[in-house]
Specification:
Number of domains: 2
CATH architecture of the largest domain: Up-down Bundle
CATH topology of the largest domain: Glutathione S-transferase Yfyf (Class Pi), Chain A, domain 2
Distance between the termini: 30 Å
Structural class: alpha+beta
Order of helices and strands: EHEHEEHHHHHHH
Largest sheet: 4 strands, mixed
Strand content: 5-15%
CATH class of the largest domain: Mainly Alpha
Radius of gyration: 17 Å
Number of helices: 9
Helix content: 40-55%
Shape: globular
Length: 208
């Protein structure tokens, strides 16, 4: 048995964590299904009944991790030799932008796609403020820094970067010079290519 079991759907946020699995060099096997045929017992792994989900077979017991940002950081923690954890000087930016991308940025992008309009006087209640504000914050950082934690690639970039890879591909995030350059840097990584090739094949086989 592999050390990790990874549950995913071909065209889903699971692609974010597959990239992290390859960056970490994790020993894993995947369980791929579609929404119509998801295993009936999957809800025991994730009560939200959504992917991705990761099960770490640790000795005589298992650990379950859900939520892509949490999965990705967990993989960095369990594979310190990968060099993807932040050092003491990178830690603040690492966690700042990892959780910013998983919270305000994703919510702002989804809200825009759903057509949810937040009245300006209630922007503070929304948490993310507005999409323009969230993107401005990220652009300010990426205009001065190559990666989420600063000068080098860390595991935070598998999550933050995925937001921009998808956003630029589907037009939900504007292609500014800073965002385009960031996506070009991170998608040149061998682990990204390996993971993307697996998911591209699964998507093609599923006819999506």
């Amino acid at each position: 048995m592999a050390e990790f079991t990874f549950y995913t759907v071909a065209m889903s946020r699971g692609q974010i964590s597959r990239w992290a699995l390859h960056e970490a060099g994790a020993d894993y096997e995947h369980v791929v299904f579609d929404w119509a045929t998801r295993p009936t017992d999957f809800i025991n792994i994730n009560p939200m009944n959504k992917v991705p989900a990761l099960v770490h077979h640790h000795g005589d017991h298992d650990h379950v991790v859900t939520e892509a940002a949490a999965i990705n950081h967990y993989l960095a923690e369990t594979h310190p030799e990968s060099g993807l954890l932040p050092d003491i000087h990178e830690r603040a930016a690492y966690f700042r932008w990892l959780f910013f991308a998983a919270g305000p940025l994703e919510q702002a992008v989804v809200g825009k796609a759903m057509g949810w309009e937040v009245p300006p006087e209630r922007a503070g209640m929304a948490g993310f403020g507005s999409l323009d504000l969230a993107l401005s914050a990220m652009e300010g950082w990426l205009s001065k820094n190559d990666f989420a934690a600063g000068k080098r690639f860390t595991m935070a970039d598998t999550y933050v970067g995925s937001q921009f890879v998808w956003g630029l591909r589907f037009g939900s995030i504007p292609e500014t010079p800073a965002f385009k350059a960031y996506v070009e840097r991170i998608t040149q990584r061998p682990a990204y290519a390996e993971a993307n090739a697996i998911d591209a094949k699964l998507i093609a086989e599923a006819g999506q």
